Amino acid sequence: MLNHAEILCSQYRAALEMLKQAVVRCPPELWDDAQDRNRFWHVAYHALFYTHLYLHPRGEVFQPWPLHRVDYEFLGPKPWPPHELPTIGEPYTPGEVLAFLEVCQAFAAQQTAALDLEGPSGFSWLPFNKLELQIYNIRHLQQHTGELMERLGSRAQINVDWKAESRE
Predict the structure, then answer these.
(1) Any residues with CB less than 8 A from the CB of 141 and at least 6 apart, and which?
(2) Out of 46, 108, 110, 147, which residue is the most buried by the measure of CB atoms under 10 Å away?
(3) What is the Cβ-side half-sphere exposure of residue 166, based on CA atoms within 13 angstroms?
(4) Confidence band (pLDDT; 50, 70, 90) for 2?
(5) pLDDT tens for each residue of 75-117
(6) Which domains does the chain have, with CATH numbers?
């Protein structure tokens, strides 16, 4: 029987694998399509940034991915006043996004084993315990993965396979 940490790790791996498929299968014309308010690469990066962030024990110890670009995590106005729009410049390449995804896969495996699931979230703006934070985090990751899957399906007739779980 799997424990809570193993179950969470399996669900992170499955969700990240689905995002990986979406990135790998994304045709170049959809990667940075000007018709999208939030480009494909930007949504993928946003999902990975927050997956990585919320796997940390607390916000104060967060270490961004070394290739992180300032404000690239935001899909809209910054959440604090004066709610400025971020400046988003050069897109990440598929290879860069996949490299970050690999970092998140490894970090999820490492961190889920060490989490105190009964403890506080570690993020003042999320007033629930660490277990609920992980469910929240996986839901966020899957929401954006689903958004990208829809783009692939509706615009390029490309499907992404469903992963129920992923155990290694």
Answers:
(1) 12, 15, 16, 19, 47, 50, 51
(2) 108
(3) 15
(4) confident
(5) 999 998 999 999 999 999 999 999 999 999 999 999 999 999 9
(6) 4-77+91-156 (1.20.120)
Whether the Cβ atoms of residue 57 and residue 162 lie closer than 8 Å to each other: no
Task: Tell me the mean pLDDT in the region 42-70.
Answer: 97
Backbone dihedral region for residue 158 (phi beyond 0: left; psi -120 to 50: alpha; all else: beta) = beta
Find residue 120's DSSP bridge partners.
129
Please report the pLDDT score of residue 168 as a whole number: 62
φ, ψ (nearest 5 deg) of residue 109: -60, -40
Q: Which two tokens stand for residue 116?
A: 């105190």
- For residue 129, the cross-strand partners are 120
Contact 155, 26 (CB under 8 A): no
Q: What are the tokens at 109?
A: 């495996």
| Burial (0-12, 13-18, 19+ Cβ within 10 Å), 79 | exposed
